[in-house]
């Protein structure tokens, strides 16, 4: 059971980081020549969030918590509790920051493509998107580092 949970957790963690990297690459290389092309790219980003990042995050969070429950010594290690708290923070951050921004930007780009939106509104939606992606990637990498190195996190 422990090995299966560890495998699911590892694959899900890879999915999160891969999805975030895909999001970053798509966003960086997005054609901005026409509002229609940009709106299509934003729909691709929403699909990456919905079909890769969120399911991977849910699988990682659930498998991590189940691994703690299945392996009793994890209850006594601080790194496991820090990892669990970071996982919950990541889930909230993903829903609140990345998912909401991706959906809002796609909707605004769609309005621009039909001629109904304002060009400045999209800039407001995207203002902190790169910062949010960077913070979420840092949290993801911190999660992996905690899982690999398992520091004691004890008091001196």
Condensed summary:
It is built from 5 helices and no strands. By secondary structure, it is mainly α.
Q: Can you give keywords for this protein?
A:
mainly alpha; elongated; 5 helices; 156 residues
Description of the structure:
- This protein has helices at 2-28, 35-70, 78-113, 119-126, 129-149.
- With 156 residues, the protein is an all-alpha fold.
- It is elongated.
- The mean pLDDT is 87.
How many H/I helical runs?
A: 5
Based on secondary structure, the structural category is mainly alpha
Overall geometry: elongated
**Share in β-strands:** under 5%
What are the low-pLDDT stretches, counting only 5+ consecutive residues below 50?
none
Please identify the oligomeric state: single chain
- Taken together, the total number of domains comes to 1
SSE string: HHHHH
CA-atom Rg in angstroms:
18 Å
Biggest sheet record: none
Helix content: over 70%
Mean pLDDT across all amino acids: 87
Separation of the first and last Cα atoms: 35 Å
């Amino acid at each position: 059971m422990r090995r299966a949970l560890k495998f699911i957790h590892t694959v899900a963690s890879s999915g999160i980081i891969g999805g975030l990297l895909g999001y970053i690459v798509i966003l960086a290389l997005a054609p901005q020549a026409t509002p229609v092309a940009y709106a299509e790219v934003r729909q691709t980003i929403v699909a990456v969030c919905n079909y890769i990042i969120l399911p991977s995050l849910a699988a990682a969070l659930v498998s991590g918590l189940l691994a703690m429950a299945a392996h009793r010594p994890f209850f006594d290690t601080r790194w496991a509790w820090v990892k669990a708290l970071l996982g919950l923070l990541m889930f909230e951050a993903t829903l609140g920051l990345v998912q909401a921004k991706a959906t809002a930007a796609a909707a605004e780009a769609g309005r621009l493509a039909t001629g109904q939106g304002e060009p400045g509104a999209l800039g407001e939606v995207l203002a902190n998107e790169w910062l949010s992606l960077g913070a979420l990637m840092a949290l993801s990498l911190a999660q992996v580092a905690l899982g690999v190195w398992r520091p004691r996190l004890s008091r001196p």
